[in-house]
Amino acid sequence: MVVVSKVFSKSIFDSRKDKTILVSVHTNMGIFSASSPTGKSTGKFESAPYRKDLDGDIETLNKFSDYFSEENIDNFSDLRRVEDTVDRHIGANSLFALESAILKALAKEQKKEIWELINPRAKKFPRLVGNAIGGGKHSWEKKKPDFQEFLLIPDEKSVKESQEKNKDAKKELSRLLKKKDEKFSDKRSDEDAWETSLNDKDIFDVLRETGIPLGTDVAASGFFKRRKYHYENPMFKRTEEEQVVYISNLIRNFNLFYVEDPFDENDFEGFAKLLKKFPKTLIVGDDLIVTNYKRLEKAIKEKSVNAIIVKPNQTGSLMEVQRVCELAKKNGIKLVFSHRSGETEESILADLAFGFGADFLKCGITGKERETKIKRLIEIENGFGR
Questions:
Q1: Does residue 311 surpass a pLDDT of 90?
Q2: Res 106: pLDDT
Q3: For residue 141, is pLDDT > 90?
Q4: Which of 311, 334, 362, 373 is catalytic?
Q5: Rounded to whole angstroms, what are the CA distances from 288 to 54, 268, 349?
Q6: What number is the average pLDDT over the span 170-184?
Q7: Helix or strand or coil: residue 332?
Q8: Which domains does the chain have, with CATH numbers?
Q9: Which of 46, 99, 191, 343 is catalytic?
Q10: Is 191 noted as a catalytic residue in this protein?
Q11: pLDDT at 66 over 80
Q12: Could you confirm whether 311 is annotated as catalytic?
Protein backbone atom coordinates (compact mmCIF):
# COMPACT_ATOMS: atom_id res chain seq x y z
CA MET A 1 0.00 0.00 0.00
CA VAL A 2 0.98 3.64 -0.43
CA VAL A 3 0.99 5.87 2.62
CA VAL A 4 0.97 9.62 1.94
CA SER A 5 2.86 11.50 4.65
CA LYS A 6 3.02 14.96 3.12
CA VAL A 7 1.66 17.01 0.23
CA PHE A 8 3.54 19.93 -1.27
CA SER A 9 2.44 22.07 -4.19
CA LYS A 10 3.77 25.04 -6.13
CA SER A 11 3.19 26.94 -9.36
CA ILE A 12 5.08 26.23 -12.56
CA PHE A 13 4.78 27.61 -16.10
CA ASP A 14 2.91 25.83 -18.85
CA SER A 15 3.74 25.94 -22.57
CA ARG A 16 2.03 29.33 -22.91
CA LYS A 17 4.10 30.71 -20.01
CA ASP A 18 0.97 30.89 -17.87
CA LYS A 19 1.08 29.55 -14.33
CA THR A 20 -0.32 26.14 -13.45
CA ILE A 21 0.01 23.77 -10.51
CA LEU A 22 2.51 21.03 -9.69
CA VAL A 23 1.72 18.71 -6.77
CA SER A 24 4.24 16.47 -4.99
CA VAL A 25 3.30 13.69 -2.60
CA HIS A 26 5.75 12.33 -0.05
CA THR A 27 5.07 8.63 0.44
CA ASN A 28 6.61 5.44 1.82
CA MET A 29 7.77 4.81 -1.80
CA GLY A 30 9.46 8.20 -2.24
CA ILE A 31 8.40 11.56 -3.65
CA PHE A 32 6.19 11.69 -6.75
CA SER A 33 5.08 14.78 -8.67
CA ALA A 34 2.51 15.60 -11.33
CA SER A 35 1.29 18.78 -12.98
CA SER A 36 -1.93 19.92 -14.59
CA PRO A 37 -2.37 21.61 -17.97
CA THR A 38 -4.47 24.75 -18.41
CA GLY A 39 -7.15 25.44 -20.99
CA LYS A 40 -7.63 28.66 -22.93
CA SER A 41 -10.71 27.75 -24.92
CA THR A 42 -12.73 26.56 -21.94
CA GLY A 43 -16.31 25.37 -21.86
CA LYS A 44 -18.77 27.37 -19.77
CA PHE A 45 -19.80 24.22 -17.91
CA GLU A 46 -16.43 22.72 -17.00
CA SER A 47 -15.31 22.64 -13.37
CA ALA A 48 -13.35 25.60 -12.03
CA PRO A 49 -9.58 24.95 -12.24
CA TYR A 50 -9.06 26.27 -8.70
CA ARG A 51 -11.33 26.79 -5.69
CA LYS A 52 -10.69 30.54 -5.78
CA ASP A 53 -7.30 30.93 -7.43
CA LEU A 54 -4.02 29.09 -7.94
CA ASP A 55 -2.29 30.54 -4.89
CA GLY A 56 -5.29 29.66 -2.73
CA ASP A 57 -5.21 26.01 -3.84
CA ILE A 58 -1.46 25.82 -3.24
CA GLU A 59 -1.93 27.12 0.28
CA THR A 60 -4.82 24.72 0.94
CA LEU A 61 -2.97 21.64 -0.33
CA ASN A 62 0.14 22.46 1.68
CA LYS A 63 -2.03 22.61 4.79
CA PHE A 64 -3.70 19.28 4.01
CA SER A 65 -0.67 17.08 4.74
CA ASP A 66 -2.01 15.97 8.11
CA TYR A 67 -5.31 14.88 6.57
CA PHE A 68 -3.56 12.46 4.21
CA SER A 69 -1.29 10.86 6.80
CA GLU A 70 -4.08 8.43 7.71
CA GLU A 71 -4.84 7.46 4.11
CA ASN A 72 -3.58 4.15 2.73
CA ILE A 73 -3.94 3.76 -1.03
CA ASP A 74 -4.16 0.18 -2.34
CA ASN A 75 -5.87 0.55 -5.73
CA PHE A 76 -7.33 2.99 -8.23
CA SER A 77 -10.74 3.09 -6.54
CA ASP A 78 -9.12 4.33 -3.31
CA LEU A 79 -8.85 7.71 -5.02
CA ARG A 80 -12.47 8.13 -3.91
CA ARG A 81 -11.24 8.63 -0.33
CA VAL A 82 -8.77 11.26 -1.50
CA GLU A 83 -11.58 13.09 -3.29
CA ASP A 84 -13.78 12.95 -0.21
CA THR A 85 -10.98 14.50 1.84
CA VAL A 86 -10.43 17.50 -0.44
CA ASP A 87 -14.03 17.88 -1.62
CA ARG A 88 -14.91 21.55 -2.22
CA HIS A 89 -11.51 22.67 -0.92
CA ILE A 90 -9.56 22.66 -4.20
CA GLY A 91 -10.32 23.01 -7.93
CA ALA A 92 -10.12 20.58 -10.84
CA ASN A 93 -6.53 21.32 -11.89
CA SER A 94 -5.27 20.77 -8.35
CA LEU A 95 -7.25 17.56 -7.86
CA PHE A 96 -6.05 16.13 -11.17
CA ALA A 97 -2.39 16.82 -10.32
CA LEU A 98 -2.81 15.38 -6.81
CA GLU A 99 -4.43 12.17 -8.00
CA SER A 100 -1.90 11.76 -10.81
CA ALA A 101 0.99 12.02 -8.34
CA ILE A 102 -0.64 9.42 -6.08
CA LEU A 103 -1.12 7.05 -9.04
CA LYS A 104 2.58 7.33 -9.84
CA ALA A 105 3.42 6.30 -6.27
CA LEU A 106 0.96 3.39 -6.39
CA ALA A 107 2.36 2.16 -9.72
CA LYS A 108 5.86 2.17 -8.22
CA GLU A 109 4.71 0.32 -5.10
CA GLN A 110 2.94 -2.37 -7.13
CA LYS A 111 5.67 -2.56 -9.80
CA LYS A 112 3.10 -1.79 -12.49
CA GLU A 113 2.56 0.72 -15.25
CA ILE A 114 0.06 3.47 -14.40
CA TRP A 115 -2.39 2.24 -17.04
CA GLU A 116 -2.41 -1.21 -15.40
CA LEU A 117 -3.90 0.32 -12.25
CA ILE A 118 -6.93 1.31 -14.34
CA ASN A 119 -7.24 -1.79 -16.52
CA PRO A 120 -4.54 -4.48 -16.48
CA ARG A 121 -6.14 -6.06 -19.58
CA ALA A 122 -5.96 -2.90 -21.72
CA LYS A 123 -4.72 -3.61 -25.23
CA LYS A 124 -6.32 -1.11 -27.65
CA PHE A 125 -4.06 1.73 -28.76
CA PRO A 126 -5.74 5.06 -29.49
CA ARG A 127 -5.43 6.62 -32.91
CA LEU A 128 -3.55 9.92 -32.98
CA VAL A 129 -5.32 13.20 -33.67
CA GLY A 130 -2.76 15.88 -34.53
CA ASN A 131 -3.37 19.62 -34.68
CA ALA A 132 -1.53 20.77 -37.82
CA ILE A 133 -2.89 24.31 -38.36
CA GLY A 134 -4.31 26.59 -35.68
CA GLY A 135 -6.90 29.37 -35.66
CA GLY A 136 -9.53 30.91 -33.42
CA LYS A 137 -8.47 31.56 -29.83
CA HIS A 138 -5.28 29.55 -30.29
CA SER A 139 -3.84 31.85 -32.95
CA TRP A 140 -1.93 35.07 -32.33
CA GLU A 141 -2.52 36.47 -35.82
CA LYS A 142 -4.94 39.32 -36.56
CA LYS A 143 -6.22 37.68 -39.74
CA LYS A 144 -6.72 33.98 -39.09
CA PRO A 145 -9.09 31.08 -39.72
CA ASP A 146 -12.27 31.11 -37.64
CA PHE A 147 -12.05 27.42 -36.78
CA GLN A 148 -9.69 26.64 -33.91
CA GLU A 149 -7.91 23.50 -35.11
CA PHE A 150 -7.30 21.70 -38.37
CA LEU A 151 -6.48 18.08 -37.67
CA LEU A 152 -4.66 15.16 -39.28
CA ILE A 153 -5.80 11.70 -38.16
CA PRO A 154 -3.61 8.99 -39.73
CA ASP A 155 -4.71 5.38 -39.56
CA GLU A 156 -1.43 3.47 -39.52
CA LYS A 157 -0.65 0.10 -37.92
CA SER A 158 1.25 1.62 -35.00
CA VAL A 159 1.33 4.80 -32.94
CA LYS A 160 4.94 5.34 -33.99
CA GLU A 161 4.09 5.14 -37.70
CA SER A 162 1.17 7.50 -37.23
CA GLN A 163 3.33 10.06 -35.45
CA GLU A 164 6.00 9.87 -38.15
CA LYS A 165 3.34 10.37 -40.83
CA ASN A 166 1.92 13.41 -39.01
CA LYS A 167 5.36 14.97 -38.54
CA ASP A 168 6.24 14.47 -42.21
CA ALA A 169 2.87 15.91 -43.26
CA LYS A 170 3.32 18.93 -41.02
CA LYS A 171 6.68 19.69 -42.66
CA GLU A 172 5.05 19.35 -46.08
CA LEU A 173 2.25 21.69 -44.99
CA SER A 174 4.81 24.41 -44.32
CA ARG A 175 5.84 24.21 -47.99
CA LEU A 176 2.23 24.11 -49.21
CA LEU A 177 1.15 27.05 -47.04
CA LYS A 178 4.00 29.19 -48.37
CA LYS A 179 2.54 28.70 -51.85
CA LYS A 180 -0.99 29.73 -50.86
CA ASP A 181 -0.35 32.30 -48.13
CA GLU A 182 2.21 35.00 -48.97
CA LYS A 183 2.23 36.08 -45.29
CA PHE A 184 3.06 32.61 -43.96
CA SER A 185 6.33 32.59 -42.02
CA ASP A 186 6.43 29.33 -40.04
CA LYS A 187 4.87 30.95 -36.98
CA ARG A 188 3.25 28.58 -34.48
CA SER A 189 0.07 28.75 -32.44
CA ASP A 190 -0.54 27.94 -28.76
CA GLU A 191 -0.45 24.24 -29.61
CA ASP A 192 2.61 24.40 -31.87
CA ALA A 193 0.44 24.26 -34.99
CA TRP A 194 1.12 26.43 -38.04
CA GLU A 195 -0.43 29.90 -38.10
CA THR A 196 -1.86 31.22 -41.34
CA SER A 197 -4.09 34.02 -42.61
CA LEU A 198 -6.00 31.63 -44.91
CA ASN A 199 -9.70 31.02 -44.33
CA ASP A 200 -11.18 27.69 -43.29
CA LYS A 201 -12.00 26.43 -46.79
CA ASP A 202 -8.57 27.30 -48.18
CA ILE A 203 -6.93 25.40 -45.31
CA PHE A 204 -8.98 22.27 -46.03
CA ASP A 205 -7.89 22.55 -49.66
CA VAL A 206 -4.26 22.52 -48.52
CA LEU A 207 -4.75 19.77 -45.95
CA ARG A 208 -6.29 17.28 -48.32
CA GLU A 209 -3.09 17.28 -50.35
CA THR A 210 -1.53 15.29 -47.48
CA GLY A 211 -3.79 12.31 -48.21
CA ILE A 212 -4.41 11.84 -44.48
CA PRO A 213 -7.97 11.70 -43.02
CA LEU A 214 -9.00 15.20 -41.93
CA GLY A 215 -10.76 16.72 -38.97
CA THR A 216 -11.45 20.08 -37.38
CA ASP A 217 -12.27 21.64 -34.03
CA VAL A 218 -14.69 24.41 -34.93
CA ALA A 219 -14.91 25.64 -31.29
CA ALA A 220 -18.11 27.37 -32.40
CA SER A 221 -19.01 28.70 -28.94
CA GLY A 222 -16.09 31.10 -29.30
CA PHE A 223 -17.82 33.07 -32.07
CA PHE A 224 -21.49 32.47 -31.27
CA LYS A 225 -23.40 35.45 -29.90
CA ARG A 226 -26.94 36.76 -30.14
CA ARG A 227 -28.07 33.54 -31.84
CA LYS A 228 -25.65 33.87 -34.74
CA TYR A 229 -22.19 32.60 -35.67
CA HIS A 230 -19.97 35.61 -36.34
CA TYR A 231 -17.28 34.69 -38.87
CA GLU A 232 -14.43 37.12 -39.49
CA ASN A 233 -12.45 35.49 -42.31
CA PRO A 234 -14.38 36.40 -44.41
CA MET A 235 -16.89 38.51 -42.46
CA PHE A 236 -20.20 36.68 -42.35
CA LYS A 237 -23.04 36.04 -39.89
CA ARG A 238 -24.69 32.64 -40.01
CA THR A 239 -27.93 31.69 -38.30
CA GLU A 240 -28.15 28.36 -36.50
CA GLU A 241 -29.76 26.75 -39.53
CA GLU A 242 -27.16 28.25 -41.88
CA GLN A 243 -24.43 26.87 -39.64
CA VAL A 244 -25.87 23.37 -40.09
CA VAL A 245 -25.82 23.82 -43.88
CA TYR A 246 -22.30 25.26 -43.88
CA ILE A 247 -20.79 22.50 -41.74
CA SER A 248 -22.67 19.88 -43.79
CA ASN A 249 -21.15 21.24 -47.00
CA LEU A 250 -17.65 21.16 -45.51
CA ILE A 251 -18.09 17.52 -44.46
CA ARG A 252 -19.24 16.59 -47.97
CA ASN A 253 -16.76 18.66 -49.94
CA PHE A 254 -13.67 17.74 -47.92
CA ASN A 255 -14.71 14.28 -46.73
CA LEU A 256 -14.17 15.30 -43.10
CA PHE A 257 -13.72 12.34 -40.79
CA TYR A 258 -13.94 14.28 -37.51
CA VAL A 259 -15.86 17.45 -36.55
CA GLU A 260 -15.58 18.80 -33.00
CA ASP A 261 -17.86 21.44 -31.44
CA PRO A 262 -19.52 22.57 -34.70
CA PHE A 263 -22.22 24.37 -32.71
CA ASP A 264 -22.61 26.36 -29.50
CA GLU A 265 -22.11 24.55 -26.20
CA ASN A 266 -25.86 24.67 -25.44
CA ASP A 267 -27.05 23.46 -28.84
CA PHE A 268 -27.67 19.73 -28.29
CA GLU A 269 -30.27 19.90 -31.06
CA GLY A 270 -27.83 21.27 -33.66
CA PHE A 271 -25.35 18.47 -32.90
CA ALA A 272 -28.18 15.93 -33.25
CA LYS A 273 -29.19 17.30 -36.66
CA LEU A 274 -25.65 16.98 -37.94
CA LEU A 275 -25.17 13.48 -36.53
CA LYS A 276 -28.41 12.32 -38.14
CA LYS A 277 -27.17 13.60 -41.53
CA PHE A 278 -23.65 12.18 -41.13
CA PRO A 279 -23.75 9.09 -38.89
CA LYS A 280 -20.39 7.86 -40.21
CA THR A 281 -18.56 11.13 -39.42
CA LEU A 282 -17.32 11.60 -35.88
CA ILE A 283 -19.47 14.40 -34.40
CA VAL A 284 -17.46 15.22 -31.29
CA GLY A 285 -18.59 17.08 -28.19
CA ASP A 286 -16.08 18.99 -26.06
CA ASP A 287 -17.57 22.26 -24.78
CA LEU A 288 -20.93 20.49 -25.12
CA ILE A 289 -19.96 17.74 -22.64
CA VAL A 290 -16.87 19.03 -20.68
CA THR A 291 -16.19 15.52 -19.31
CA ASN A 292 -19.41 15.85 -17.30
CA TYR A 293 -21.58 12.79 -16.60
CA LYS A 294 -24.93 14.62 -16.58
CA ARG A 295 -24.21 16.51 -19.80
CA LEU A 296 -23.18 13.25 -21.44
CA GLU A 297 -26.46 11.70 -20.29
CA LYS A 298 -28.33 14.54 -21.98
CA ALA A 299 -26.31 14.17 -25.19
CA ILE A 300 -27.06 10.45 -25.25
CA LYS A 301 -30.78 11.07 -24.72
CA GLU A 302 -30.87 13.63 -27.54
CA LYS A 303 -28.54 11.61 -29.83
CA SER A 304 -26.24 14.62 -30.16
CA VAL A 305 -22.80 12.99 -30.51
CA ASN A 306 -21.06 9.77 -31.39
CA ALA A 307 -17.74 10.83 -29.83
CA ILE A 308 -16.67 12.96 -26.86
CA ILE A 309 -13.53 14.74 -25.75
CA VAL A 310 -12.22 13.63 -22.36
CA LYS A 311 -10.01 16.20 -20.66
CA PRO A 312 -9.25 14.87 -17.16
CA ASN A 313 -8.63 18.33 -15.70
CA GLN A 314 -12.07 19.52 -16.84
CA THR A 315 -13.46 17.58 -13.89
CA GLY A 316 -10.28 16.90 -11.89
CA SER A 317 -11.70 13.68 -10.47
CA LEU A 318 -10.30 10.55 -12.11
CA MET A 319 -13.19 8.61 -10.56
CA GLU A 320 -15.53 10.89 -12.52
CA VAL A 321 -13.45 10.37 -15.66
CA GLN A 322 -13.96 6.63 -15.16
CA ARG A 323 -17.75 7.09 -14.84
CA VAL A 324 -17.89 9.23 -17.98
CA CYS A 325 -15.84 6.71 -19.97
CA GLU A 326 -17.99 3.79 -18.83
CA LEU A 327 -21.20 5.61 -19.78
CA ALA A 328 -19.81 6.54 -23.19
CA LYS A 329 -18.68 2.99 -23.96
CA LYS A 330 -22.01 1.54 -22.83
CA ASN A 331 -23.71 3.76 -25.42
CA GLY A 332 -21.25 3.21 -28.28
CA ILE A 333 -19.72 6.69 -28.04
CA LYS A 334 -16.04 7.02 -28.99
CA LEU A 335 -13.54 8.44 -26.50
CA VAL A 336 -11.03 11.13 -27.51
CA PHE A 337 -8.58 11.84 -24.68
CA SER A 338 -7.18 15.32 -25.16
CA HIS A 339 -4.44 17.69 -24.08
CA ARG A 340 -5.07 21.39 -23.34
CA SER A 341 -3.63 24.44 -25.09
CA GLY A 342 -1.43 25.26 -22.09
CA GLU A 343 0.50 22.03 -21.58
CA THR A 344 3.31 20.77 -19.34
CA GLU A 345 5.75 17.92 -19.86
CA GLU A 346 3.50 15.65 -17.81
CA SER A 347 2.96 12.37 -19.72
CA ILE A 348 0.24 10.65 -17.66
CA LEU A 349 -2.43 11.49 -20.26
CA ALA A 350 -1.07 8.63 -22.41
CA ASP A 351 -1.48 6.11 -19.57
CA LEU A 352 -4.98 7.36 -18.83
CA ALA A 353 -5.99 7.18 -22.50
CA PHE A 354 -4.67 3.62 -22.86
CA GLY A 355 -6.00 2.46 -19.50
CA PHE A 356 -9.50 3.82 -20.07
CA GLY A 357 -9.62 2.38 -23.60
CA ALA A 358 -9.65 5.63 -25.58
CA ASP A 359 -10.29 5.39 -29.30
CA PHE A 360 -8.22 8.52 -30.02
CA LEU A 361 -5.48 10.58 -28.36
CA LYS A 362 -5.47 14.23 -29.34
CA CYS A 363 -2.28 16.00 -28.33
CA GLY A 364 -0.78 17.94 -31.18
CA ILE A 365 2.06 16.84 -33.43
CA THR A 366 5.18 18.71 -32.32
CA GLY A 367 6.44 20.64 -29.31
CA LYS A 368 8.10 19.01 -26.29
CA GLU A 369 5.00 19.25 -24.10
CA ARG A 370 2.90 17.45 -26.75
CA GLU A 371 5.49 14.96 -27.87
CA THR A 372 6.18 13.71 -24.34
CA LYS A 373 2.67 12.23 -24.30
CA ILE A 374 3.04 10.60 -27.72
CA LYS A 375 6.46 9.24 -26.76
CA ARG A 376 4.92 7.71 -23.64
CA LEU A 377 2.21 6.05 -25.74
CA ILE A 378 4.89 4.68 -28.09
CA GLU A 379 6.76 3.41 -25.01
CA ILE A 380 3.63 1.54 -23.91
CA GLU A 381 3.26 0.18 -27.44
CA ASN A 382 6.87 -1.03 -27.45
CA GLY A 383 6.15 -2.90 -24.23
CA PHE A 384 3.64 -4.98 -26.21
CA GLY A 385 6.28 -5.77 -28.82
CA ARG A 386 4.43 -3.95 -31.60
A1: yes
A2: 97
A3: no
A4: 311
A5: 26, 7, 21
A6: 95
A7: coil
A8: 2-112 (3.30.390.10), 127-383 (3.20.20.120)
A9: 191
A10: yes
A11: no
A12: yes
